[in-house]
Design brief:
Belongs to the bacterial solute-binding protein SsuA/TauA family. Keywords: Signal, Transport. InterPro entries: ABC_SsuA_sub-bd, Solute-binding_3/MltF_N. This protein is of the alpha/beta class. It folds into two domains: 50-133 and 238-344, D-Maltodextrin-Binding Protein, domain 2; 140-233, D-Maltodextrin-Binding Protein, domain 2. It has 16 helices and ten strands. The strands form two sheets. Strands 2-1-3-10-4 form a five-stranded mixed beta sheet, with helices on both faces. The protein is globular and about 65 Å long.
Length: 345
């Protein structure tokens, strides 16, 4: 028995070794699926992410968004994460807010007043970067040439045109309070820009609360007078990147990609200011002098939202609650999310 067992055992061992050798040879065969190591497989980030589309709203004609769009930077960046890009232009905040509420829009720029209006309308937002102080260029109270109205106190009983629910409206409420005037003492006419401008120019309004380029045009071409502004009253109107909260939650990589493109546009403007101004004038078909005024006033940036801005914004929201503009308290800090932009910095 012993003599028979040893040869059998040896044969079994040899057979096992042969199988092992064959297995190793198969693993080394280039065409064999087993030769591909999962850890070194060239799987790209694009292949790992589901396709999606982001709808970007240019609210008020942002120079930086126009620049990035014209250079294809959004498409280039979003292609890396399997995303497609759609663009929409909005002349004022209410239109953009309506599209955010209907989920036709995923991201836009909003001034503090627009954010408050959106929140009061139950639009859930995340503010992901700070774009401008908005002290200049966003809020003016102008009166026609030859008007007897010289200051805000003279507006009692007068017709003042503005788009309700916008930063212009919020600014005007704050401005009136600083001047000791109740909103009820002024006849506010709710007009969007396409309606307000002809009404102002034909004498149907005693004053118009608006932004550049419209204030600039009325002053330089038609002799209108500025009786109050964000700068003169030290009432900033901070500008933010505002995402729909559910979109930001579902596509955090898209928020980061968007902010990278905005930073690229802001950096390009700072490094090539005169060239950028010329590009803006061509893209927007506007006078070069006007473009320079707008850019100088705006002072574009793309930074984390500072604590001071959050505190000032909270004070504004509390004031509007006190005045009845808001129906419930807004916790501004809960809207702010700097994590996306901090990852890019």
């Amino acid at each position: 028995m012993t003599k028979l067992t040893l040869p059998c055992t040896a044969l079994i061992l040899v057979f096992a070794l042969l199988l092992s050798a064959c297995g190793n040879n198969n693993n080394q065969t280039p065409n064999s699926p087993a030769s591909v190591n999962a850890s070194t497989s060239p799987v790209t980030a694009t292949a790992e992410l589901k396709p999606f589309t982001i709808s970007i709203g240019n609210n008020g004609g942002s120079n930086q968004l126009k620049l990035a769009q014209s250079k294809g930077w959004f498409e280039e960046e979003f292609a890396k994460i399997n995303g497609k890009v759609e663009f929409s232009d909005f002349q004022s905040g209410p239109q953009a807010i309506e599209s955010l509420a209907a989920k036709r829009l995923d991201v836009t720029t909003l001034v503090d007043g627009g954010v408050i209006t959106a929140i009061s309308g139950k639009v859930d937002l995340k503010l992901t970067s700070y774009l401008s102080s908005g002290l200049k260029g966003i809020n003016y109270v102008i009166v026609p040439k030859g008007s007897e109205v010289k200051e805000l106190a003279d507006l009692k009983g007068k017709r003042v045109g503005l788009p309700k629910g916008t930063t212009n409206h919020v600014f005007f409420v704050k401005a009136l309070k600083k001047s000791g005037i109740q909103e009820s003492e002024v006849n506010i006419v709710n007009l969007l820009i396409p309606e307000a401008q002809p009404a102002f120019e034909t004498g149907q309004l005693d004053a118009w609360v608006t932004a550049d380029p419209f204030a600039y045009q009325e002053v330089s071409k038609n002799g209108a007078t500025i009786i109050a502004s964000g700068e003169s009253l030290n009432i900033p109107a901070p500008v933010f990147t505002a995402f729909r909260a559910d979109f930001a939650k579902e596509h955090p990589e898209a928020v980061e990609a968007y902010l990278r493109v905005v930073k690229k546009a802001v950096d390009y403007e700072k490094a090539n200011y005169e060239e950028a101004l010329q590009t803006y004038a061509e893209l927007k078909k506007q006078d070069a002098e006007l473009i320079k005024v707008l850019a100088d006033n705006y002072q574009a940036q793309n930074e984390p939202i500072p604590d001071q801005i959050v505190a000032e914004f909270q004070a504004s929201a509390d004031l509007l609650l006190e005045l009845g503009f808001l129906k419930e308290k807004v916790e501004v800090s809960k809207l702010v999310d700097n994590t996306f932009i901090e990852k890019n910095n």
